[in-house]
Amino acid sequence: ACLSTVSLKLQFLQFTSIHLQFTRLSILLINFVVITDDGVSKSFLAYKTNSSAEKEQLQTSYNTLTKERYQIQTSYNTLTKERDQLQTSYNTLTKERDQLQTSYNTLTKERDQLQTSYNTLTKERDQLQTSYNTLTKERDQLQTCYNTLTKERAKLQTESGKFTNLSWQKFESSLYFLSTESKTWKESREDCLKRGADLVIINSDKEQTFLFNLKKGVWIGLTDSVNEGTWKWVDCTPLTT
């Protein structure tokens, strides 16, 4: 657009220069007619003829320049309009670019936030997986212990049945041996110790009721042999009421 404007200005200056020359020639012709006498009429006519030819050429050049100037002006106007349209398009694209940049920045920020959330969730998941694995291992260990205890309980129940047939009485988790022989407290304790047991220590009213319901004379593990009048159980714990 700038080069076209300079070219238009140069052509306009050329047109102006030719127009000035044509005007000066017309003035000289008028002055020449005024000051010329009859003696030089032929020279005047020749000059006039030449001047007319030059005038026609100048007129033709003038008309051509006028036409070119119009065409250049039209081209200039067209280029100016196109430039304005391009400027409008440029401004629109710039605005759209800025909006896209803003959207891009927003999406980038959201992506970073999501990435952070994802990393956090991944870490929590790994921690939960570790906890789950630990609990699973503990559960398996407990299951193994449970199975072992179940087998031991079954074995003990079998053993308990055998002891029951051999004058043993079961109460809750304990077995009580009932001798068919009459013995002193000391003899009874010695017999219990030989069997890997001891005289009974009563720990509850239920246990006392159980022993009473046997309806047999039994020795219990209570004695004042160490200090007469001070009763203690065979495990050395004092008697409490």
Automatic annotation (TrEMBL):
Q: What Gene3D superfamilies would the database entry show?
A: 1.20.5.400, Mannose-Binding Protein A, subunit A (3.10.100.10)
For the keyword Coiled coil, the answer is: yes
Checking InterPro entries in the record gives: C-type_lectin-like (IPR001304), C-type_lectin-like/link_sf (IPR016186), C-type_lectin/snaclec_domain (IPR050111), CTDL_fold (IPR016187)
Answer whether the UniProt record assigns the keyword Coiled coil to this protein. Answer: yes
> Can you tell me which residues the record assigns to a coiled coil?
76-159
Q: Which Pfam families match?
A: Lectin_C
Cross-referenced PROSITE patterns: C_TYPE_LECTIN_2 (PS50041)
Where would you find the membrane-spanning parts of this chain? none
Which keywords does UniProt give here? Coiled coil
Q: Which residues form the signal peptide?
A: none
The C-type lectin domain, residue ranges: 171-241
Q: What is the protein named?
A: C-type lectin domain-containing protein
